[in-house]
Design brief:
Aspartate Aminotransferase, domain 2, 382 residues, three-stranded antiparallel sheet, alpha/beta, seven-stranded mixed sheet
């Protein structure tokens, strides 16, 4: 059987339709969109059309979309850009302990710049308490940043409830929606969010591009300076081929949104059913009822996660772990550590994330291989 890819939350394969849309802007229409001649005007037209498509995908205005190099830059721009532009109002920021490192490391940077950051805990399901957010607000709180859907366990936060609270308190709200975009409808006309980050390569678009939605009226300072691109909010010649590809991927993702959600939920349900039938010992990390459908984080008791990932890879199956092995020492996932504190789950958990192209046949094969691998590794551990 050909290799099976179940690491779509890390990155996803680029669809043929996306590649076809990009090629003309690599081969023929290579002009700089800031140039006034016909070559530049053709690229500018494509850029403007792509911006409209992206804006329509979240029901926003085109001028509220800032193209970036991806989700990480979008997160950086949201936090640093807003903090610098609004420091006169205060220097307190609130986030959670389970954010992507694009947020956490940026918050650490802001702390070094004199800002005060509160890192809120989460429950064992990975949920932040709205009441705890409210009690953490201060007179000098200027920004709250909370991930919409977690990239490791899939937990969905109560974004609408949080946003409603912050609108009432007049505190800006940013959410990293990288894992959610293309699976849940995002309507910025009604969603109480001021800034929202998205990445192209999680929805079968090219790597190296993304966007930050910034609601009209929200002021941010650019973190990349130079030219006057992106309405003076993000300097640098726009990556037109990738942006065109991103727009095509967004168009397809929105069109297939409900179909994708239902398919991934059915496949992950089948995954769990087959493991149950095969009597494979495992625990679900997170809450399936409040989770993204394509992310399944499982803990396999008494099994070394690095050994399991190597064995799965040898069997042609790609999955991932929140753990990173450096020079033989294992650093547990900060997400699982925030959820569970200490314990075996931190060192025995694997994330399977589904996406475009995965099938029932692949689920059957992967669960059968998991049975073999877990039995083999359990026997070795005894």
């Amino acid at each position: 059987m050909k290799p099976i890819y179940m690491d779509h939350a890390a990155t996803s394969p680029v669809r043929e339709e996306v590649i076809d849309a990009m090629l003309p802007f690599m081969k023929e229409h290579f002009g700089n969109p800031s140039s006034i001649h016909q070559f530049g005007r053709r690229s500018r037209q494509a850029l403007d059309e792509s911006r409209r498509t992206i804006a329509q995908s979240i029901e926003s205005s085109p001028e509220e979309i800032i193209f970036t190099s991806g989700g990480t830059e979008a997160d950086n721009l949201a936090l640093i850009g807003y903090a610098e532009a609004n420091q006169g109002k205060g220097k307190h920021i609130i986030t959670t302990q389970i954010e992507h490192h694009a947020i956490l490391h940026t918050c650490e940077r802001l702390e070094n710049m004199g800002y005060d950051v509160t890192y809120l805990p989460v429950s064992e399901e990975g949920l932040v308490s709205v009441q705890e957010i409210e009690s953490s607000l201060r007179e000098d709180t200027i920004l709250v940043s909370i991930m919409y859907g977690n990239n490791e366990v899939g937990t969905l936060q109560p974004i609408e409830e949080i946003g409603a609270l912050l609108r009432e308190k007049e505190v800006a709200f940013h959410t990293d929606a990288v894992q959610v975009y293309g699976l849940l409808p995002l309507t910025m006309k009604t969603l109480p969010v001021d800034m929202l980050s998205v990445s192209s390569h999680k929805i079968n678009g090219p790597k190296g591009t993304g966007f930050l939605y910034v609601r009209n009226g929200i002021n941010i300072s650019p973190t990349v300076t130079g030219g006057e691109q992106e309405r003076k909010r993000r300097a640098g010649t726009e990556n037109v081929p990738s942006i065109v590809g991103f727009a095509k991927a967004a168009e397809l993702a929105v069109k297939e949104q409900e179909e994708r959600w239902n398919k991934y939920r059915q496949l992950t349900d089948l995954f769990l059913d087959r493991l149950e039938e095969k009597k494979v010992r495992r625990y679900i990390n997170g809450n399936r009822k409040k989770s993204l459908p394509h992310i399944l984080n499982l803990s396999f008791p008494k099994i070394n996660v690095e050994s399991m990932l190597v064995n799965l890879d040898l069997a042609g199956i790609a999955a991932s772990s929140g753990s990173a092995c450096t020079a033989g020492s294992i650093e547990p996932s900060h997400v699982l550590a925030a959820m569970y504190g200490e314990g075996e789950k931190l060192y025995s958990s694997i994330r399977f994330s589904l996406g475009y192209g995965n099938s029932v046949e692949e689920i059957e094969h992967v669960t059968e291989e998991l049975k073999k691998v877990t039995e083999r590794l359990s026997a070795q551990a005894e």
